[in-house]
Design brief:
The protein is an alpha/beta fold and 456 residues long. The protein has 14 helices and 16 strands.
Length: 456
């Protein structure tokens, strides 16, 4: 690359510069466009930040360009990010659909905004569901077909999952594409036999279970509707599965989510210790705490930590996990498709046959008769609303309608939750507030074995 060309570049807007990380003043330049970090000494940092690119050695300059830390002077970077997002969405190779086969859940979690009733997806809707999905497969040559089983509590509708899976597998075979699924469950019914059936017969390769801290904390949040603790039952189920001698042969990832607010934030560390005590580090795909947010207008977020407070605590939890040799993702990856709602095709179907393009609006009266409900499976396709709220999210960001437009974290966040922004709720993830700490932690983890405190 000729030196004269260096004049045509600029420091990307989407670069985070860490604080100095050692005595020599070395720091990390992290591109949120590529999720790549480059360690640089103060001399290089000064040349980069002052725009004196001609003084950079060619190999350093080329590395910075490849990492998109330096970009062409004339580039409209926001337009590039949005264009890449829209291209990724338009080129979807997987048809992803979410199904809520049950409107019922055994739990009475105070932060849940859903209204649970003993309703299950009726057989009368099966063929209508298959027809709607097949029309999508006819319209575009997908390579994969993937279902997300959601709730209520989906395992309360195991019968429906079994029956529908047979039809879904036949549909995938008809169009010569792969089929798979995932499930989000409270874990109460996740017995060892159910796990085996999910993975071997029902093609589930990802399971998410929620534990809101150890029993002391969890049982105050996730209790049975009729009263009764749940932690020990769920944890017993998980241990039974994780301790199977052939567990890894099932090729199913199980993650554990921990919903956090002010009342149980002190329970996260004891939960990490408990998981480590049972030597689950290499069996849990990943463990992640997440702040409780408003669901269906229930204002559950009022008891949450601020995002800044959560970000501080998250660093302590990450250090603890590293010390115990859990797999952690310290640095965020590029997010081009933020959620199902930005897809022009993906939809969610609830137990009543209602159709949505957002997973956060079902079973909540506040969203009844809104644009979030596209229609119902009992109606022919020409009576299903073609207007899909939030699908134009990327265009809204490009037009400057939300703070995401000027945020350096946009490429690794995507906006997080378009619906939240539309409801005047800040959706920013912790990365926005602790990215420099995570860069430092990532640097230290690469230089030291933090579990032993010694050099590799």
């Amino acid at each position: 690359m000729k030196e004269i060309m260096k004049k045509n570049y600029k420091l990307s807007y989407y670069v985070i510069i860490s604080d100095p990380l050692n005595q020599s003043g070395q720091c990390v330049l992290f591109s949120t466009r590529t999720s790549r970090g480059i360690n640089v000494l103060p001399k290089v940092l000064n040349l980069v930040t002052t725009g004196d690119f001609e003084a950079l050695p060619d190999d350093v300059f080329n590395t910075l360009v490849e990492s998109e830390i330096l970009v062409r002077e004339e580039e409209n970077e926001l337009l590039t990010i949005i264009s890449e997002n829209k291209e990724e969405i338009g080129d979807e190779e997987t048809l992803y659909e979410v199904i809520q086969p049950s409107a019922m859940c055994q739990f009475g979690c105070p932060y849940c905004g859903q209204e649970h009733k003993r309703n299950y997806l009726a057989k009368d809707h099966y063929q209508q569901l298959i027809n709607r999905i097949e029309n999508k497969l006819k319209a575009k040559a997908y390579k994969h077909f993937y279902i997300g089983w959601f709730g209520g509590e989906p395992l309360m509708a195991l019968k429906q999952i079994r029956e529908l899976t047979v039809l879904f597998k036949e549909l995938a075979e008809k169009y010569s594409i792969t089929y798979g699924s995932k499930i989000v469950t409270n874990g109460l019914s996740l017995k060892e036999g159910v796990f085996q059936e999910l993975v071997t017969e029902l093609k589930v390769n990802f399971i998410e279970v929620t534990l809101d801290g150890t029993a002391e904390y969890h049982d105050k949040k996730r209790y049975l509707k009729e009263g009764g603790d749940t932690f020990n039952l769920i944890f017993k189920n998980l241990l039974s599965i994780f301790n199977k001698p052939d567990y890894h042969d099932y090729n199913c990832n199980i993650s554990i989510r921990c919903n956090v607010d002010r009342t149980n934030c002190e329970g996260v560390s004891p939960l990490i210790e408990l998981l480590a005590e049972h030597k689950l580090q290499d069996k849990i795909a990943y463990f992640y705490p997440i702040g409780i947010y408003s669901w269906g207008g229930n204002e559950a977020q009022k008891g949450s930590l601020t995002k800044e407070e959560f970000a501080v605590m998250e660093i302590d939890w990450l250090i603890q996990m590293i010390e115990h040799k859990f797999a952690v993702n310290l640095l965020p990856g590029r997010v081009k498709k933020v959620c199902l709602s930005v897809s022009p095709t993906s939809e969610m179907y609830d137990a009543y046959g209602n159709i949505f393009n957002c997973t956060e609006v079902s079973y909540t009266s506040v969203y009844e008769n809104t644009n979030y409900t596209l229609g119902n499976l009992k109606f022919p396709d020409d009576r299903i609303n073609t207007f899909r709220p939030l699908t134009d999210w990327n265009d809204q960001v490009l037009a400057g309608k939300f703070p995401c437009t000027t945020c350096k974290m946009l490429p690794v966040c995507g906006g997080a939750c378009p619906k939240s922004w539309h409801e005047d709720m800040r959706a920013c993830p912790p990365n926005k507030f602790n990215i420099k700490e995570k860069l430092a932690l990532s640097y230290l983890a690469s230089k030291f074995d933090l579990s032993d405190g010694v050099l590799n």
